[in-house]
Design brief:
Layout: H1 46-65, H2 72-92, H3 102-111, E1 114-117, E2 122-125, E3 139-144, E4 147-150, E5 160-163, E6 168-171, E7 184-185, E8 187-190, E9 194-199, H4 201-209, H5 212-224, H6 234-241, E10 245-250, E11 254-257, H7 258-261, E12 264-270, E13 273-283, E14 294-304, E15 317-322, E16 328-330, E17 342-351, E18 356-363, E19 371-379, E20 389-397, E21 412-426, E22 440-451, E23 455-457, H8 459-464, H9 466-473, E24 481-492, E25 501-508, H10 509-519, H11 522-565, H12 576-583, E26 587-596, E27 609-615, E28 621-623, E29 635-643, E30 649-656, E31 664-672, H13 673-676, E32 680-687, E33 698-709
Helix pairs in contact: 1-2, 2-3, 3-4, 5-6, 9-11
Length: about 725
Amino acid sequence: MNNTVSLPDLYTTTQRFFGIEPRSHFATMQGLRPGPRGSIEVPKGLYQTFCVYMRNRQMVWDEQAQKQRIPARTARLLHGLETECAAGLRQLNPYLFQRFDDKQLLKILRSVPIGNYAKDTWIFSRDPKVEDDPPAPEYYFIVHGEVDVYERSPKVSVDCVTLRPGDIFAEGGFPTATSAVRNRGAGAQAKGTVLVIVMSKMAVGQSCQDDRLIADKKYANILQKMQAFQEIKIHKLEKWLELAQIFHVPAGQELLSWPQVEDSFLIFTANTMQWCADIHLVEMQNPDKEVSRRKIHIFAEAAIGLQGGSIFDKLDPYLIVRLSPQKRFQTATMNNAGKDPYFNHHGVLVYDQEPAMEVIVYDYNEYGTHEILGQATIPASEFTTPAGFEGEVQLFKPGKTSIWSTKSGEATPAGVLLLQITWGAPLGFRSVTKHKEPRQRSFPKVALLDLQQKTYFGHEAIILGGTFFDNLQRATASLGFTLSLSNFHIRAKQEDPQMTKSTVIRIPRQVFEAFLIRVNKQKDFLTEAVNSSLEKQVKLRETCHKLILKWDEEERRRQAQMSMRQKDPSTQGLDVNVIRSKLRGAILTVRVVSAVGLGGPKQEGKLDPYLIIKVVGTNAVVQSAVYEDASSSPQFDFEARFRYNGETVVDVTIMDKDRFSKDEVLGTCSLTIEQFHDGFVGAMDIRRPASLSKNAGSAGTLMLEIEWSDIPGA
């Protein structure tokens, strides 16, 4: 059965009970809002206790009817049985009996009918002709056994719902979305031995209204001592409280489900309660502020004061910039540029937590080893700031070594390099090997803040509406987390080993709003709601901060334990098969940006290059247009897309168009899956095929960008 109840306000009390006129708005049906109640554990021996109590109660009634004196021993026995039965009822359905204190619940037990039904006995059954008649005034609370409730008359339908101890059902009527008692029907039959309490308007209504005249004055005096109500006359507060509902919540139990509380103004008069909710924290990730996997634009303007060369043999310098052996680019060779070459070269690389950037200036030698003119290392801390880097980089020429000496010579200053580094956009796809989902964790049933006695709560949500909750969820922005709150509830706090009960007064939203207008307190409570909202945000931030510290400590310990069992990641190879399976089905985009030194440093004349791009292992081949009359450093800006199916090599071939003979291969370059599985931005050496032996060797560098899109599961 789905019937979570929070109040036993079963009746609209429009009758007179012992000279007290109950207010028409007091005690409404909405208190029994349906919802999952979960499994109920029936107290052991409760049925037997009720049977003994029924016999003793009937015996006392008979003696009272004969105007005989009740022995003290019998009275004590009856009171003990009543107390035990009342405790069992609270355990069967604690939310139903929150509306009653112990005194009121004992009065109910003394007055309500208790029925004991044998197996297959009909508790009630309507004829099909009268099944639509008005509902009966009684409600049935199951203490023991199971009951089949038929929505239609049992004579025309066999469809039924089985109810268990702690459930409530009624005769007649049809349930709606807001019905207090959802289980209504035209028939109810005991599946076995069943014991039910019949709650009538007379018995329960009297207990609900008992002592309210005295209670209203008592709570009105408590309210007048609060600052917000000091200026309101006592008789107006008493009149207002006539429409309120009073709850007595045992320590550790919930007051209500949240859909009712959000439309209520709550006043706490005895002991402390806690506002609780499920907290979900997600660590913020701002790609615009992260430096990992971001493009960096490098402008190498010129070098000044390089060492070497002579009047008869000027320097032919070129520059290599690299973050790692695979992340690099190379400028064109500046033939006869001398000691102050003007490179004027723009390059793009992808930064991914590399410790430093290395720049090396070489002197090209057609017949021997290229000589290092100067080199430098730029620590990552100097260019990973938002401003990047701009300025002079001091170059050092490595000292010469000798086979006769174990010590190498000291590096000497060898000019400066004018360099500018600026940050670009992050890569538009996530890494399948390095991507980390943002940390997130849920903390169920966290006490957000304490609600002390002689305080009130709920006016923030009524007056500010959604702004109140938006303000609360911004509490963790400064901590670097986004906050989500759900499953709100209010629970009585257990402050000491002794079991206590917290008392709270609930005033419906409409009654609260009408009262503010009547006493002209709208502005005062608006100011109070804003201030209270900010105070609750601060307290919530403190609570979340403690949770985050606890979370971090748990993760630190977990990582420490895992590190003792796991191998060093640096000693483990890259599992290519896993990467291929993760990327299978994605779109692979190969973009050829430009080439530098195409055909070699001594290439003369114009070229008519074009590109052939293919993924080895497939029939997919993409060819570009011919770039006529291009120089040795053409700008291609050509893009090809492929559907990736687990291949491991991408080939790029640069051809030179010849109108009168076979097209010449200027060079090729290949990238393996190990190089482009996380994308690639940088330069690759162009190599002539071995078949062209007379021209074999380096044929310049090719600037490439490889990206992924539509990665499955991304």
